[in-house]
Write a structure and sequence with these properties.
Layout: H1 3-117, H2 121-125, E1 128-130, E2 133-135
Antiparallel strand pairs: 1-2
Length: 150
């Protein structure tokens, strides 16, 4: 065998090894592509119903938000009406009620003062006597002389 023949055999062996290696790689790549195709098909089968459910959920949420917005608008209107009614009632009845209450308080004070002004029978006889003078009431009883303390 000559050097060219040996080189040819080596090249043929390396070529056979390379082709075998590429065949194994291509076979594994084909298996990977088949598995990927199955996976994508399964994901597609599951994703389509999920997307339909998600779309339905979004539509339902939009409907509920529209209802909540309507309720919030109604509550705001009711609050505004209640505030206006409260203001109207306060302005209509507030002034006269305050005047009636003040009048009633004045009448009670006037009725009560008449009873307070009349001295009790004991207090009439209770006098302090100083030599040469007579003082009508004792010092502790200042209410009768117009002072508000006591």
């Amino acid at each position: 065998m000559t050097g060219g023949e040996v080189a040819g055999i080596l090249v043929a062996v390396f070529w056979a090894i390379l082709v075998s290696f590429l065949a194994v790689v291509l076979a594994r790549l084909a298996q990977t592509l088949r598995a990927t195709t199955r996976l994508v098909a399964e994901v597609t089968e599951q994703a389509v119903p999920l997307l339909a459910d998600a779309s339905e959920t979004v539509r339902s949420a939009q409907t509920q938000l529209a209802r909540v917005d309507a309720i919030a608008t109604d509550v705001q209107e009711v609050t505004s009406n209640a505030s206006a009614l409260s203001t109207t009632v306060a302005s209509t009845f507030g002034g006269p009620l305050v005047k009636v209450a003040a009048f009633g308080y004045g009448v009670r004070r006037a009725m009560g003062r008449g009873a307070e002004d009349a001295p009790a029978p004991r207090e009439r006889t209770r006098r302090t006597v100083l030599v040469g003078r007579s003082v009508p009431f004792a010092r502790g009883d200042r209410r009768r002389w117009g002072s508000k303390k006591g």
